[in-house]
């Protein structure tokens, strides 16, 4: 089964062709990070204009690279939420137009399910499974009793993990998005500063990163007032330790209470080297659970992951009419059947 997929929920315009949900025939991604960097975040109007400029080129590139004719395709998968409405609309229009032109059915895909499904590019997820979904807009522990069934057992009460990296990055005048840069700085620094690991003792699986963010802001302002120079690498190490500690602590608790066959690490923050290392170590204590991190090149936004999740829907005969609309606030609970 060959599925062509469209992703445009944030600042990546992407089209991919994926066979049977796990073989990537092509994955064309155009990123617009450079256009947003000077604003320190995504500017929605700029984003949708970029998507319009790039979508046709990205589509042609995906078809050329895969050497696949449209008539050899079985369906069109598309992200319809969550994300920026103006950005989502461009991919949705592209997908519907392509589907109409080639007589193909449309598969609606949740962007977050896509992030998780990208684990299948590493090895097949076995069920029941759990996922830690950590991205720019989301931080969730998701229980999947079977394929394509999602139960959010814990989530952030304020900032997402990636958002906290990006906000600390802005404070330190690092280029947006700052996750990768802070990850690199953290390797060079020492954990000299004690920041709070939020909610470590509470009896649930939720996260909170705004207290940590405030602690970092206070630390920097305090140092500035006293005209002390900050060792940015040490700050990065100390901050990243606090984020990873919080993620590991909640994950450990969830794995103890929900025995699963696979544990998936997904979303843009899944690229974090310390998080990958520490989860690998944690999973050593759970020999019945296989650790399946999304391969590095598929952690950020891309259409291949939408093709992987699209295949889950395809197998369940979940298709959309051509009046499918965007759902910018889509979450997992809506997907439960
Ligand atoms: P969502 O998926 O929630 O809709 P999004 O699509 O904007 O949000 P992603 O593209 O999945 O988010 O992830 C981007 C985030 O990942 C950014 O916040 C970025 O800083 C973060 N990130 C990328 N690489 C790393 C890294 N090595 N360490 C930590 N964070 C990282
Ligand atoms: Fe994303
Ligand atoms: Mg992104």
From TrEMBL:
* GO CC, one annotated term: cytoplasm
Pinpoint the Gcp-like domain residues: 24-307
Q: Does the keyword Acyltransferase apply?
A: yes
Q: Which InterPro entries match?
A: ATPase_NBD, Gcp-like_dom, KAE1/TsaD, Peptidase_M22_CS, TsaD
Q: Name one Pfam family in it.
A: TsaD
HAMAP family hit by this protein: TsaD
Q: What is this protein called?
A: tRNA N6-adenosine threonylcarbamoyltransferase
Give the gene that encodes this protein. Answer: tsaD
């Amino acid at each position: 089964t060959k599925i062509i997929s469209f992703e445009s929920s944030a600042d990546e315009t992407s089209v991919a062709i994926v066979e049977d949900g796990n073989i990537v025939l092509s994955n064309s991604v155009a990123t617009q990070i450079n256009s947003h960097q000077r604003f320190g975040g995504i500017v929605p109007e700029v984003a949708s204009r970029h998507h319009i400029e790039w979508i046709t080129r990205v589509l042609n590139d995906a078809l050329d690279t895969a050497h696949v004719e449209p008539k050899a395709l079985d369906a069109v998968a598309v992200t319809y939420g969550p994300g920026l409405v103006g950005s989502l609309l461009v991919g949705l229009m592209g997908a519907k137009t392509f589907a109409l032109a080639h007589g193909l059915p449309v598969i609606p895909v949740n962007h977050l399910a896509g992030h998780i499904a990208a684990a299948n590019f590493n090895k097949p997820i076995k069920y029941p499974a759990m996922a830690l979904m950590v991205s720019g807009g989301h931080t969730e522990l998701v229980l999947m009793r079977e394929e394509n069934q999602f139960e959010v057992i814990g989530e952030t009460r304020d900032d997402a993990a990636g958002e906290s990296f990006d906000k600390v990055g802005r404070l330190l005048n690092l280029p947006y998005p700052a996750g990768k840069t802070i990850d690199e700085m953290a390797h060079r620094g020492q954990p000299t500063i004690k920041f709070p690991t939020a909610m470590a003792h509470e009896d649930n699986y939720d996260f909170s990163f705004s207290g940590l963010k405030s602690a970092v802001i206070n630390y920097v302002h305090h140092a500035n007032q006293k005209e002390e120079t900050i060792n940015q690498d040490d700050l990065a190490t100390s901050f990243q330790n606090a984020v990873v500690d919080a993620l590991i602590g909640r994950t450990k608790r969830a794995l103890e209470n929900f025995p699963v066959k696979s544990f998936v690490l997904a979303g843009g923050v899944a690229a974090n080297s310390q998080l990958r290392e520490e989860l690998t170590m944690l999973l050593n204590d759970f020999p019945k659970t296989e650790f399946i991190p999304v391969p590095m090149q598929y952690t950020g936004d891309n259409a291949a992951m939408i093709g992987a999740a699209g295949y889950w829907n395809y197998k369940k005969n979940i298709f959309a009419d051509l009046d499918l609309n965007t759902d910018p606030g889509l979450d997992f609970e809506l997907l439960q059947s």
